[in-house]
Amino acid sequence: MNRKRFLDRRINMSEVTITAAEINKLRQMTGAGMMDCRKALTENNGDIEAAIDWLRKKGQKVAALRGDRDAKEGVVLAKTTADNKTGITLCLSCETDFVSKNDDFVAFAQSIMDAAIANNVHSADELYAQEINGAKIADLVNDKLASIGEKIGVSKFERIDAEFVSSYIHGANRMGVLVGLNEVQPEVGKDIAMQIAAMNPVAIDSSSVSAEVIEREKGVILELIKNDPKMAGKPDEMISKIAEGKLNAFYKESTLVAQAFVKDGGMSVGDYLKSKGSDLKVVSFKRVALG
Fold it and tell me: Does 134 lie in the same domain as 16?
């Protein structure tokens, strides 16, 4: 076998490892075209996160770096304690929408949520050990799995404790949001929860963006600048300033308080918070969504 045929065979073998499901998943996550997604996955050995960065470095505007904790199908719920000091959002996942839309399955998910709130649960593992009508939730989940023939489980679990916690469920149990405030302001909590559902920020503000996300974003920005013919030969100082400007634009688009307020585009979320209280702050938020 000559070298060209051997290399062609290696490429084809690499492409075979990329499944249609993986391509579709990347398309749903990024909005990129099918062939671009295939190439991105092939170039990165099927690594979804690396493929996202590859697409972005090629100049494609894709959805990336968000904090969604996704599951393919299931029921997402969000609920607070009666005193609004604690909130929990969880996903009871399954394999098909036929099951997720079944009233019995939704009721089962709700019973698990009620147990989480009633027993002050802090994690999914702790939740499985709780009981509903004398039976452990872990056993009930296994019984449900056996009866419906699909793999199910509490795939996502998030909790917030704050002076005031607001919960919000969006899109027929497809997304749950929790918002923790430092003051008791129910209307503000609802507005901010809806903002988070719509705009999906990565953090509260620029100071709370993780170092990993910042380094990843810087890498994409510098790669784009390097590949821009207009930037050839430009001094490092100019490139650095441009990169800083693009990173600031990322913060404005992707951090909660800097985003334009969805109910009034003339102000930022930070401005809205100040209008409701000089010391009012979002101290934490969680967003769980089905993919």
Answer: no
pTM, whole model, 2 decimals?
Answer: 0.74
Tokens standing for residue 38 = 């295939």
- Cα(198)–Cα(59) distance, integer angstroms: 24
Q: Which of 154, 183, 203 is the last residue of a domain?
A: 203
What tokens appear for 56 in the block?
A: 């972005």
Look up residue 86 and give its amino acid: T
- 53 with 79, same domain: the answer is no
Where residue 63 falls among pLDDT bands split at 50, 70, 90? low
Tokens 């704050």 map to which residue? 162
Query: Are the CB atoms for 21 and 38 separated by under 8 Å?
Result: no
Among the listed ranges 135-139, 150-154, 282-286, which one has the minimum average pLDDT value? 150-154
Q: How far does CA 250 lie from the centroid of its chain?
A: 17
Burial 2-25 (b: 16+ CB within 10 A, else e): eeeeeeeeeeeeeeeebeeebbeb
Residues linked to residue 203 through DSSP beta bridges, in sequence order: 255
Please indicate, yes or no, whether residues 77 and 143 belong to a single structural domain of this protein: yes
Domain of 85, in residue numbers: 73-203
Q: Does residue 133 belong to any structural domain of this protein? A: yes
C-alpha–C-alpha distance, residues 29 and 291, integer Å: 8
Alpha carbons 131 and 147: distance in angstroms, whole number:
19
Which tokens in the block code for residue 230?
Answer: 């207009």
Helices 34-43 + 48-57 axis angle, to 10: 110
Same domain, 141 and 19: no
Q: What is the CATH number of the domain that holds 165?
A: 3.30.479.20
Band the pLDDT of 108: cuts 50, 70, 90.
very high
Burial zone of 35 (CB within 10 Å; 0-12 exposed, 13-18 middle, 19+ buried): exposed
Asked if residue 185 and residue 96 are part of one domain, the reply reads yes
Do the domain assignments include residue 285?
no
